[in-house]
Specification:
Blueprint lengths: L1 H7 L5 H20 L5 H8 L10 H29 L1 H20 L4 H13 L3 H13 L3 H29 L2 H4 L4 H5 L1 H9 L3 H21 L7 H4 L26 H9 L2 H12 L10 H10 L3 H14 L3 H5 L13 H29 L9 H42 L1 H6 L17 H30 L7 H32 L9 H28 L8
Membrane topology: Multi-pass membrane protein
Protein name: Major Facilitator superfamily
Main location: membrane
Length: about 550
């Protein structure tokens, strides 16, 4: 037993770098997700004369948008630096700068200073993309080890997305939530500090995680940039259906490094497709990727190799394209000229906008006193944790069944259609009254919202993973990296605008006098308007999915 433990902890054991990468994945997700429950409350605190529980959405939305814009601005630059200066140097810089800006956000007493710190946090928070690169490079030619390691990293993302909102909600404004806490009563200095900086504790936890990450990287990871030539695959490995390269995990925005591009080009179509599907989708975090879901994606991508051969044959038949255009970079905007490509992009962008819109609007609905549930930070975090738990338990089986029986485009349409009732059902939670003055829901309402949220996440995972694979199949393999770069920019724009739209629309719905108070009562009117709008957007998404995407070519 002692010898086995020693072998696990040895420098050559993959356990150490797997644990380190999982820790980094947990940290990056915590930095980005812990603010969700308390962001509206923080906006009210920083803007006491402007923001209230009904109109705070148009102010708190910029917290989310600034992070997204910062990540979009910095992703490509960090990727190029990692390709030239090394992976570990980028990780060190990102961890140290993230520590500084997350502490600065927690200590912000000015709204615009808080927005600036969130933008710079996003700008210096490219840990997730480098983590994914390190998984493939540290695993080397062992594709089974690579798949298992990526599963562990995605599991860490899922665990962090499950716990981060709950931790952030519990630690926010501790003086209000725990007025009788012993340490607050015994230390008046700490009491006064936390009374002035109400949202410092969750950001302090994020800063500590980043600081711990520096020695974790130092002692458990090695620089992989110099291993490019040694680890390049020969293309002669046997590929089996039981061992796909990687599943359709979703995560942070990611620009392919030159090494990853070479690896994708050197391998068969199915493997390149699956890798690109993971790289492409930067719209969702914390998705559980299992062996079943990987095999389901693999089966649904059977015809890719033949499709690639047809594309290559068509290119070779064009008389002057290869000879005259050799060395010329592909035109990114040229991909949009194809009607099929444009149809997929329309569905992709609308789905991304809708999901980000709902992500921003739901905490505002929970906070509102007149048209919402009137909950506090900890209860909002508890609802999100419950939905994440249900999603984690049910996602693998549902995900596998949908892909196996409906195919690629069929799963997109199924997910878009199945999500429609979820939006219309949320306002019925208002039928449950709060229990006393403590702003806590009855357990039945908590379970109700948790189930709806969990099912909604499952449908979201199915939609985005499927359309990501479908988008990769639209262009030849050698153009996919450029196409991914285009989609990263489009995704950043959609994700940045959606929270602002959600914030302003929620403020209008919850505080507007457009309809008289007796119209379903003020308690119902704002919530019904908000979620009916999202419901009709989901109907439009399903309609466009059936209208524009067509049918799968491969048998199911």
């Amino acid at each position: 037993m002692a010898q086995h433990r020693k072998s696990i902890l040895s420098a050559n054991s993959p356990f150490r770098w797997q644990a380190a990468l999982c820790y980094l994945a947990f940290t990056i997700t915590f930095l980005l997700s812990n603010t969700v429950p308390y962001a509206p409350f923080m906006a009210i605190t920083l803007l006491p004369n402007r923001a209230n529980a009904e109109n705070v959405g148009k102010y708190s939305a910029f917290f989310t948008s600034c992070v997204i814009w910062g990540r979009s601005a910095g992703a490509g630059k960090w990727g190029r630096m990692a390709d030239t200066k090394g992976r570990l140097r980028v990780l060190y810089i990102n961890l140290i700068m993230s520590t500084m800006f997350t502490l600065a956000f927690g200590l912000s007493n000015n709204y615009f200073v808080a927005l600036a710190t969130r933008f710079f946090l996003g700008l210096f928070c490219d840990i997730g993309s480098i983590t994914k690169v390190c998984v493939s490079e540290l695993a080397g030619k062992d594709r089974e080890l690579e798949a298992k390691s990526m599963n562990l990293v995605v599991l860490a993302w899922a665990l962090s997305s499950l716990l981060s909102p709950a931790i952030g909600g519990v630690l926010a404004d501790p003086v209000k939530q725990f007025p009788d806490a012993y340490i607050l009563q015994q230390d008046p200095v700490l009491h006064e500090f936390l009374l002035q900086y109400k949202y410092f504790l969750p950001n302090l936890v994020g800063a500590i995680l980043c600081l711990i990450g520096v020695p974790v990287v130092k002692f458990n990871l090695r620089e992989t940039l110099t291993d490019q030539d040694d680890d390049a695959p020969t293309g002669e490995e046997e590929k089996t259906e039981e061992d796909p390269l990687i599943g359709p995990g979703l995560g942070e925005s990611y620009v392919l490094s030159r090494e990853a591009i070479q690896i994708a080009k050197a391998q068969d179509g199915e493997d390149a497709l699956l890798r690109d599907a993971y790289v492409l989708t930067d719209d969702f975090e914390g998705v559980m990727t299992t062996a079943q879901s990987r095999r389901a994606i693999f089966v649904s991508s059977k015809s890719l190799m033949h499709e690639e051969e047809d594309n290559n044959q068509q290119e070779s038949n064009n008389g002057d394209d290869d000879s005259t255009n050799a060395g010329r970079p592909p035109s990114t905007l040229g991909f949009l000229c194809n009607c099929n490509n444009l149809s997929h992009l329309i569905v992709y962008c609308l789905g991304l906008f809708l999901i980000q819109f709902h992500t921003e609007a739901f905490p505002l609905f929970c906070l509102s006193q007149t048209s919402g549930l009137g909950l506090d930070e900890s209860t909002i975090g508890g609802i999100m944790m419950a939905s994440g738990l249900i999603h984690s338990l049910l996602q693998p089986s549902i995900y596998h069944c949908v892909f196996a029986h409906r195919g690629l485009k069929g799963s997109i349409k199924w997910a878009a259609t199945a999500a429609i009732p979820m939006f219309f059902l949320v306002p019925f939670a208002l039928l449950s009254k709060k229990v006393g003055p403590d702003h806590h829901l009855r357990w039945m309402a908590l379970v109700y919202l948790g189930v709806i949220g969990g099912l909604g996440k499952i449908f979201t995972v199915t939609f985005f993973s499927s359309i990501s694979v479908s988008l990769n199949r639209l262009v030849p393999r050698k153009h996919r990296a450029t196409f991914n770069g285009l989609l990263t920019k489009i995704a950043g724009t959609c994700k940045g605008m959606a929270p602002i739209a959600a914030g302003f629309f929620t403020a209008f719905a919850f505080s507007s006098r457009f309809l008289p108070p007796w119209w379903w009562g003020r308690r119902w009117w704002g919530a019904v308007l908000l979620y009916a709008t999202m419901g009709w957007m989901s109907i439009l998404l399903a309609f466009l999915s059936f209208l524009l995407l067509g049918r799968d070519d491969e048998p199911h």
